[in-house]
Design a protein that fits this description.
By secondary structure, the protein is α+β, with helices and mostly antiparallel strands. It is built from 9 helices and 20 strands. Zinc ion (ZN) binds at residues 250, 278, 282, 299, 302.
Amino acid sequence: MKRLFATLLALGSAAVAHAAPPHYDVAAKFDPQGALDADVTITLSDGEAEKAFLLSDRFALQPMDLPPGVTMSVEPSTSPMPALNKYSFRFAAPATDPVKLRFRYAGPILTEHDSGNKPLRPEGYELFIDHMWFPVGADIQTRFTVDAAIDGLDPDLVVVAQGDVTRTATGVRIHRDFLDIDLPMVAMHGLQRAEAHGVEFYSRDLSTQLSGWYVKHAEGAARYFEAMFGPLPRKVRMAQVWRERSMGYARTAYTVLSEGGRNTPDITEVNPGRYVAHEIAHAWWMLASPLTDDFWLVESAAEYMSMRYVEHAFGAEELAKNIAAKRDATKDAGPVMGHGRPNRIQLYGKGPLLLLDLEHRIGRPAMDRLMIAMAKEPVHTTPVFLKHLTAIAGADAAREFEKALHT
Ligand SMILES: [Zn+2]
């Protein structure tokens, strides 16, 4: 009996080791002009037959020493953005031991394909997946853990990153034992830090009205969503940067906001409230592929939850104004699904309105059960959502909603 138990334990731990997610060991160095020198080892333990990675073609890759039984081919790629190289690896036999792929490369961190977010600016660095500065899983949904040593950072840059972040004299060490598709980092001069429930907030000026509203509503939204979905898994590190482009983005326990276009004299509290609630909502809504139809389950779901927060914090009248603006903006939006990744207006306007219409059809208690069930799913796809909707509100409601997504 004891022996059998030991065997079962051994099998159990082998199965766990087999399922380990990819791990990145990153050693990177920036020179003062922003030239990057990088050495990235990716450990794959999941025994897949093949795996591809994307890296910007502005980096020159040294010849790779491939492990036995591994072959690689490289081709230019323009998907999901221009000027990439795609490195495709094939593994001769389903690997039983972890496979290590080591990328050594160098090149400028600045790129014209930066989605309006310069990676190096006078105030410091803002790095994220759009800069394609580390090997990114070609499916754009390969999530990994990471140990990174990033060197060449001026001592007075304040670093905001995920996980355990330790400044060294000339750089930073990042240990992240939770999963994400990205390795995002802000390292800027003059960032001040504030803390509240659910959020650690960084800004060059904490005394502005906008900074105050972000902290207040990050906390408010965290509490509101926690009442539905349970505790926020991790405190969200949030950096407010300053650039012209107003876009923000959320990763696991990490968010970047922009002052640009937002810190205007005529701002009202509801706009930053809705915006920061949207980013906090991504703590539960970020698990659908950004390359497919299903991406509405990331952006439309986060926006719908932020509308719920607006109603909670600012009242039904404020929400009604937002709904009217969305109805007006989406008159000619076209279907959310059926053509690959939905566009901006479908994601942030039409999708949330469809969820609101669904709430009106099935009632708020059923809607809450649906969103809570969905938030617990490890992978978010439309069929999974429709399965829960069918179980909670019946096949007719699911069919109707699926039709609306395609109309
Ligand atoms: Zn979003």
